[in-house]
Amino acid sequence: MSPSVSPRFFTEKEVARHCSKESCWVLKGTRVYDVTGFLRMHPGGEALILRRSGKDISPELEGPPHRHSENARRWMEQYYIGELDRDSTEYYTEDLVDWNKPLAWQVGHLGEKYDAWVHQPVDRPIRLFGNDFFEANTKTSWYMVPAVWMPLVIYLSWYCYSLLAQGSTRVFLTSDYSIPIHKYCFPLIFLVGMFLWSFIEYCIHRFVFHMRPPAHNYYLITLHFLLHGQHHKSPFDGSRLVFPPGIASIAIGAFYLILKQLLPEGLAVSLFVGGLCGYVVYDMIHYYLHYGSPRKGSYLYGLKAYHVKHHFEHQRAGFGITTTFWDHPFNTVIPEQTF
């Protein structure tokens, strides 16, 4: 709600009537929020909010079981629709960009304010470019990832198995001693490739996507925003939760060429196809963590809560997406909390 517009006022009966998935309102003190659009996104599940619909959720925000972060509270203000009475003050948050214009060429001018700004999430669509063609190519439907890459995974799996079946693939430990790679080793090599991907996923997320661009470098700030910053600014933009295949193919092709240079073809491609499958699983899980509603107590339920905390409170930790395994040896684990 714009700070220049007088807030609407609602009676308690009006607020209480909105207690379903189709229309869910809550109170924070005397402030009224329509959180219908947030139900599916809530890391603790929509049932927790629905049980409190029409009621004051201030105690739940403070905890226990956990105190909600400042980013979570700021996020909630986007759903503010009015007041229960006239005693409360108006809410206003200053922004640093013009949301009516493409953001790609604005963020670089934020300088030292960029890091704090980009980690204050909003629930609104982002337009990166003014050109419709470029803008369309920054958006990808989730199903495009398996549609593009899984046929390649299936073909390369068959190719690798056939190549290993020829019995000519060997790993030379010395000039005189080598180990044959049997065709029945393919499933194990495939799984090793998936495991290696989980490490690459962690490294890219931590050291590339979460680099801190120098405050004086317009181009690095812009690059960071295009790569990952826009996702942290608008984490529930469903059109930008998976990588466009065209952009992903550059990194995927680079990894393929590196493996081909380092290892015999049969071994290299077997590892590569396992890693490629791991990438597809990663993108699908990442999308589900933002838009899915996993069953409480399940593995994905824990991952969803973990990832949402990464977005809203612990942006410098919790870099694992498909697994939290690598956060442990690198000491970037997010403290456990109960939802």
UniProtKB/TrEMBL annotation:
Its main location: endoplasmic reticulum. GO terms for biological process: ceramide biosynthetic process; fatty acid biosynthetic process. PROSITE patterns: CYTOCHROME_B5_1, CYTOCHROME_B5_2. It comes from the Eukaryota. The keyword Zinc applies. Plays an essential role in the synthesis of galactosphingolipids of the myelin sheath. Responsible for the synthesis of sphingolipids and glycosphingolipids involved in the formation of epidermal lamellar bodies critical for skin permeability barrier. FA2H is stereospecific for the production of (R)-2-hydroxy fatty acids. Plays an essential role in the synthesis of galactosphingolipids of the myelin sheath. Responsible for the synthesis of sphingolipids and glycosphingolipids involved in the formation of epidermal lamellar bodies critical for skin permeability barrier. It catalyses: docosanoate + 2 Fe(II)-[cytochrome b5] + O2 + 2 H(+) = 2-hydroxydocosanoate + 2 Fe(III)-[cytochrome b5] + H2O; octadecanoate + 2 Fe(II)-[cytochrome b5] + O2 + 2 H(+) = (R)-2-hydroxyoctadecanoate + 2 Fe(III)-[cytochrome b5] + H2O; tetracosanoate + 2 Fe(II)-[cytochrome b5] + O2 + 2 H(+) = (R)-2-hydroxytetracosanoate + 2 Fe(III)-[cytochrome b5] + H2O; a 1,2-saturated fatty acid + 2 Fe(II)-[cytochrome b5] + O2 + 2 H(+) = a (R)-2-hydroxy fatty acid + 2 Fe(III)-[cytochrome b5] + H2O. PANTHER family: FATTY ACID 2-HYDROXYLASE, FATTY ACID HYDROXYLASE. Keywords: Endoplasmic reticulum, Fatty acid biosynthesis, Fatty acid metabolism, Heme, Iron, Lipid biosynthesis, Lipid metabolism, Membrane, Metal-binding, Microsome, Oxidoreductase, Transmembrane, Transmembrane helix, Zinc. Residues 7-85 form the Cytochrome b5 heme-binding domain. It holds the Pfam family Cyt-b5. This is Fatty acid 2-hydroxylase. It is found in: Endoplasmic reticulum membrane; Microsome membrane. The chain crosses the membrane at residues 142-164, 184-204, 241-259, 271-289. Its cofactor is Fe cation; Zn(2+). It is a multi-pass membrane protein. Binds 2 Zn(2+) ions per subunit that likely form a catalytic dimetal center. InterPro entries: Cyt_B5-like_heme/steroid-bd, Cyt_B5-like_heme/steroid_sf, Cyt_B5_heme-BS, Fatty_acid_hydroxylase, Scs7. Pathway: Lipid metabolism; fatty acid metabolism; Sphingolipid metabolism; galactosylceramide biosynthesis.
